[in-house]
Amino acid sequence: MSANLSKDLQSKYNVRSMPIRKDDEVTIVRGSFKNREGRVTQCYRKKFVIHVERVVKEKVNGAAVPVGIHPSKVVITKLKLDKDRKKILERKNRAVGDKNKGKFTEADVAMANVD
């Protein structure tokens, strides 16, 4: 379950999205809970939803139940970094850096036409 990173995190890490994890801080960008911010308390992979802190619905008996939010409807504003996640960021950043590797430039094409 991946979610987009915020613009400042995208520019910092050169990565567009990351798998969402518990303790990441997110902002909800769609739906009735739009513009709410909070920490991810649970990733419910079976239902493909996440539960965010302070995003709850009150039941008839007064109990508060966390509302499931689809991960595509949130933006990660702060990552919980550990060694594995840092390794993923490095690997993805390296792949972005090698994007033009093996591509022909206009100068190469022009030199090929000279023969």
TrEMBL record:
<dbReference type="InterPro" id="IPR041988">
    <property type="entry name" value="Ribosomal_uL24_KOW"/>
</dbReference>
<dbReference type="InterPro" id="IPR014722">
    <property type="entry name" value="Rib_uL2_dom2"/>
</dbReference>
<dbReference type="GO" id="GO:0009507">
    <property type="term" value="C:chloroplast"/>
</dbReference>
<dbReference type="GO" id="GO:0003723">
    <property type="term" value="F:RNA binding"/>
</dbReference>
<dbReference type="InterPro" id="IPR005825">
    <property type="entry name" value="Ribosomal_uL24_CS"/>
</dbReference>
<protein>
    <recommendedName>
        <fullName>50S ribosomal protein L24, chloroplastic</fullName>
    </recommendedName>
</protein>
<dbReference type="Pfam" id="PF00467">
    <property type="entry name" value="KOW"/>
</dbReference>
<dbReference type="InterPro" id="IPR005756">
    <property type="entry name" value="Ribosomal_uL24_euk/arc"/>
</dbReference>
<comment type="similarity">
    <text>Belongs to the universal ribosomal protein uL24 family.</text>
</comment>
<dbReference type="InterPro" id="IPR008991">
    <property type="entry name" value="Translation_prot_SH3-like_sf"/>
</dbReference>
<dbReference type="GO" id="GO:0015934">
    <property type="term" value="C:large ribosomal subunit"/>
</dbReference>
<feature type="domain" description="KOW">
    <location>
        <begin position="19"/>
        <end position="46"/>
    </location>
</feature>
<dbReference type="GO" id="GO:0006412">
    <property type="term" value="P:translation"/>
</dbReference>
<dbReference type="InterPro" id="IPR005824">
    <property type="entry name" value="KOW"/>
</dbReference>
<keyword id="KW-0689">Ribosomal protein</keyword>
<keyword id="KW-0934">Plastid</keyword>
<keyword id="KW-0150">Chloroplast</keyword>
<keyword id="KW-0687">Ribonucleoprotein</keyword>
<dbReference type="GO" id="GO:0003735">
    <property type="term" value="F:structural constituent of ribosome"/>
</dbReference>
<dbReference type="Pfam" id="PF16906">
    <property type="entry name" value="Ribosomal_L26"/>
</dbReference>
